[in-house]
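User: My collaborator sent over this chain with a note saying "see what the structure looks like." That's all I know about it. Can you take a look?
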Amino acid sequence: MQATPAAKQRIQYIDLAKGFCILLVVASHILAFYRTQLPYDSVLKCFRMPLYFFLSGVFFKQYENFGGFVKRKINKLLIPFLFFYVTLGIILPWALYQWCGIKLLSYNPRFDFLQNLAQVWTLEKFPNAAIWFLICLLEVNLIFYVIFMVARRVRWHATYLIAAMSVACGALGMTLSYCHINLPCFIDSALTSMPFFALGYILNRKTRVMYNGWRCDKWLWVVVLACVPLLFWLAYPLDYRCNYFAGCYLTAHLCGVVGTIMTIFLAKMIRHIPLVTYWGRYSIMILCTHQVLYQLLDLLLKQFVPRGWWRISVCLTLTMMLYLLIIPFMRRFMPHVTAQNDVIKIN
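Assistant: Without extra context I'll predict from the sequence alone. Here is the result:
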């Protein structure tokens, strides 16, 4: 299970791919806030979350042991979840309503902290809902670590075993969806998403696909162009957060892989777009904060911009541009809760 030499290189365009991904997430949530959707919204939804899981799998590392691995994931995922769950999901909405009379969507006048925290586990409902991904990704990492260690002990065709077990997890997650069985705290969504995470790990560690100089790089544009009509043909309504799929379950995974490969290859061809690459590098900050930000912006915009596509466009633009100020602020004053510095020290 030793990494290839290529695995030690820095993949320059990954931040651009992450930037594309976070733009899709923010745009989707703003459109939902205004109760609007794009004509082919299902095409974007079919690979938006798979792309995120794939990119996370690219950076999977075993580290020194399971304890060290868990500590790192707590620092990178659980602590940001808890911080932004409390601050932007509870404290800020309450303060804005009590002091300014501003009522955000997440405000609950009868809020009970312990009861609501229990609902995160049982009902999967909580304020600042975008951060569900952090909990789900934590579970995906833990499941994959077990798969990785089992494959490492077996050794014989370990990569194939990782792929097989990850696909089996994906099939189990889809089966749970088909049977309308909801496992608590997004565990079913984590199972469904395992193949994408494993694909990111395998392509990064066991092939040259992700790195410049791959012998097929000159044909990337052909793959990208071929993926577009395929996505429009296969895509259908789905929701990885709820583990809901309205069509064929095999097609859902196929759409996720096709859309992910298309986006990765597109980013590999372009390599760098200054703003988008910057947003991608600090995408966790945007993920955790954008839902409150665009709600506050809307309070201002509705005084000056008529409702409709103009307001949606202005809201999306201002939301993303404000991160040119917010990201440096969070890097300077909030590094421990934005996955920049560790809270739990690693020996």
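A starting point for your reply to your collaborator: Residues 1-8 have pLDDT under 50 and may be disordered.
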